[in-house]
Amino acid sequence: xxxxxxxxxxxxxPVVVCRxxxxxxxxxxxxxxxxxxxxxxxxxxxxxxxxxxSLDAEQESSMSAITSRRSARALIAATSIMLLATACxxxxxxPTRKDGALGSLPTESGKPKDxxxxxxxxxxxxxxxxxxxxxxxxxxPLGNQLLVxxxxxxxxxxxxxxxxxxxxxxxxxxxxxxxxxVSITLKDGNSWSDGAPVVADDLIxxxxxxxxxxxxxxxxxxxxxxGGFPDNVVSATAKDEHTxxxxxxxxxxxxxxxxxxxxxxxxLPSSAWNIAAKDGPHLDPTVPANxxxxxxxxAAQGRELTDFxxxxxxxxxxxxxxLTEWDSSTGGYTLEPNPEYTGSDTxxxxxxxxxxxxxxxxxxxxxxxxxxxxxxxxxxxxTQADALEKKGYHVYxxxxxxxxxxxxxxxxxxxxxxxxxxxxxxxxxxxxxxxDQPGYIKSRGVYNGAATPNYSTAQAGSRxxxxxxxEPPYPYDPEAAKKLLTDHGWKVVPDGRTTCVSPGTGxxxxxxxxxxxxxxxxxxxxxxxxxxxxxxDLAFISEARKLGITITGEAKALNFLYKNxxxxxxxxxxxxxxxxxxxxxxxxxxPAASFFLGSKAFFNLGxxxxxxxxxxxxxxxxxxxxxxxxxxxxxLGENLPWxxxxxxxxxxxxxxxxxxxxxxxxxxxxxxxxxxxxxxxxFTS
Length: 685
Description:
685 residues, D-Maltodextrin-Binding Protein, domain 2, Dipeptide-binding Protein, domain 1, four-stranded mixed β-sheet, 25% helix, Peptide/Ni-bd, transport, SBP_5_dom
């Protein structure tokens, strides 16, 4: 039996509905007692999908004990009923939206006092898997910038700054006239916890290790794109103790370099970590063979989950905190202030405890009980904002900057000729026409108003927005979707089986490689949390069924998706998924998509390969034309490498017992709990 729950879409029994039923049929009427259909489900009745009924570890385990695939077929109706029932009966209007945000952002207030433990929720389903700060495409590093600081810190929400200068280790890069020389100057005065200064050799050490990682396997560096960094680095030289000069193979766009390359780099302790064995000799990492040995050793050590707190390697940090407790069974951990920290904003608290949760409902329960200091609120629970505020919490939300919340398409999946079918632009256009973004946003069963429409890799109104602005090229229009299919040789059978009746490559035929009788059926994997994404995916599945398109939905843990749904990192799984919903991707302040969609990019999960898109990626990365990126975002919105969904608000919740700079809380809406900056927070007296 698989360790996942397979949900096969059927026309469901009537369910309790609010404004919009997540299963897509707006004509249904509420019933007093929801019904199950055809078969029985396990006693707990819900997958770990983050709906209004929480799941503990025992419940999650029981979901894998469904005795047969047949019994799972009824799960979708029962699940959807339970997801909606509580939301409808307790629903209130969501908070007022003003200036693009939900709720208001309080100013820093209260008299700071030292001490106390802040409890912070970890993102649901996202447990750390390594201590090594150079992550592979399947790694989830612990601590982010809190243990080992980034070269540059992201700018605060609401500012026009390029980076957060106070939290950055270096001055902004300087570019030579040829565009191929970049100088990075590390600030003086920053030290590692062992007393060694953070110097140019530490940044060069990082670059040497990344080169070694990529040489061993391209999937070893999550940010890798062939021909990009570090392939384009001819040399990295220490001009003095604090300045690194990079010579590149070709010019690079300054915005792209800063926001896609440099901002993800972390100088590493070259004098402490340049070893290839425990208690081994210190090696020269500028020798490629040595760098490979060092990288392999550090990467392997980083994945030893039981050694996170005991391995002396990970005690050398330069961030505001150090790791003191770690639970390898849950992924929870505790950080305490680093007494040797030399940066700004030294923490006033005794500890920050990061707690793991199996569902967004479980997190909400702990917030309502007052047992959590900082958390997030899933959009499907936004009507609980008033209750949380009465419990003494601040609630504030807005879409993350340059966020994209797509259904990723697997163009390489050959199952049932999916690769041939999805290669047809008209098919992708038809599917996008079935995505009811306005309906999802308004629905109390999905986003409850806590989202904004989005139809490309840059948001409307932003600096690099597509030329079509907020007028989507393929708005929600089922009739337009049906016409696209019938005009291209398909016999559409609503609630049945739509098939190709005109094979061939003519303008009114189905397209190359699509045989007569081919149906439109494939699977969609989605993370079992947050609930809003689960519900919108179920709505999309139901809408497709109305046109005879059968989509099999499969709920999986987010960690499972990260490890398996990547054609570069997990090629053996390539034919086991057609679409996936892993949640939002953050494109960065310069939202060039080459990292995600370039034909040779190793974070190109679904093997999208389009020569015109590659040419546009090349221009946005290397051209100084300020409109190059606009051309890219416009084309991607029209060509549909992904199916675009609304950008959901990231809603932060924090106790009024703590305070700090307003931007430190606003920043939670940019990257969620992963980007938490707790050293700026303190309890008030």
